Amino acid sequence: MTKKIDENQRNRMEYIVPCHFGLEAVLKREIMDLGYEIVSVEDGRVTFAGDAQAVCRANIFLRTAERVLIKVGSFHAETFEELFQGTKALPWEEYIPQDGKFWVAKAASVKSKLFSPSDIQSIMKKAMVERMKSAYHREWFDESGDAYPVRVFLRKDEVSVGLDTTGESLHKRGYRKLTAKAPIAENLAAALILLTPWKQDRILVDPFCGSGTIPIEAAMMAAHMAPGMNRSFTAEAWNHVADRKCWYRAADEAESLVDLQVETDIQGYDVDDDMVSIARANARLAGVEEMIHFQRRGVEQLSHPKKYGFIITNPPYGERLEERENLPRLYGTIGERYRMLDSWSMYLITSYENAEQAIGRKADKNRKIYNGMMKTYFYQFLGPRPARNRR
Fold first, then answer.
1. Mean pLDDT across the stretch 282-302?
2. CB atoms inside a 10 Å sphere around CB 259
3. Which segment of 147-151, 153-157, 182-186, 266-270 scores lowest on mean pLDDT?
4. Domains parsed from the chain with CATH numbers
5. Is 341 exposed, middle or buried (0-12, 13-18, 19+ CB in 10 A)?
6. pTM for the whole thing?
7. How far apart are CA 9 and CA 52, in angstroms?
8. CA distance 15 to 165
């Protein structure tokens, strides 16, 4: 049993949602579109307020998030004693039952006096046990029940503590069983698309589609298919936080929005036959196979008869030395083919510093995004908008 969360608390909890550095504004817009109030936006995460239903809807609907954490609390700590006491003061018994399995799954520290993840994790676990001993009047916990992973962020000695409701990162939609050498994460691919004005009635081509992630994410958006529809979440077992009805309601809402009959033109090309087969298999698992045309085609063959299309792509970065030598020619070819596509827009993410020079045109916009620890640039080459049809 837990010391039950009261109704007022269930009606307004705070949720911490981590994302890729540089994509906080995209995630913020997604959360607001779900109807929730933004509490704060910081580097790599957005905090919002919502009811118990929010934990279900955020996990199922957010495309650009990494996970959804219930904020247990925050405090200032410059010493391990302050970390211990601050953690012990948090109301763990309201969230974790006496048979719950609990641990600090990850600790991250930026510009803080406490910086050793393993020490932070160990001390917080001890403090949680002490709090639980007092709350449940027990000296020992067998931790045989449901999982309650904890994540902690320290920034400038301010500690934010959250319970991870998600489990496996939200970028794991469940459709990508096979991948390319350097696949782009699904939530990053979705964010890149959301940073463009692409809509389902416009052509989208990815000439370096690899395992198909960008075209598949675009097709899911076009079909209004929620990214978390076909996977499970850790918090589904936490009935005292959000009961099964909450999860069923969120799943039913997601199901009701899907429209697989939508007309769209999404294409993915790759020079490798195996990659094209993998992309098709992944699209089939995602349920959008009929919405995407994949084919074997090198970037030097990139062409399209229609106007006002979009290229959204993740070309090779040249992480290996032998590949790096080929980058000027490869990006030069991208530039040549793009210039032949009258009125198109092109959006590409890369860590290659000389991309604009090789393409032969300065990007209209350039956004810095961290892909894991790698600094990348999202170059945006804007074409003209199509003229509106006049009646």
1. 97
2. 11
3. 182-186
4. 7-164 (3.30.2130.30), 186-228+257-381 (3.40.50.150)
5. buried
6. 0.94
7. 9
8. 10
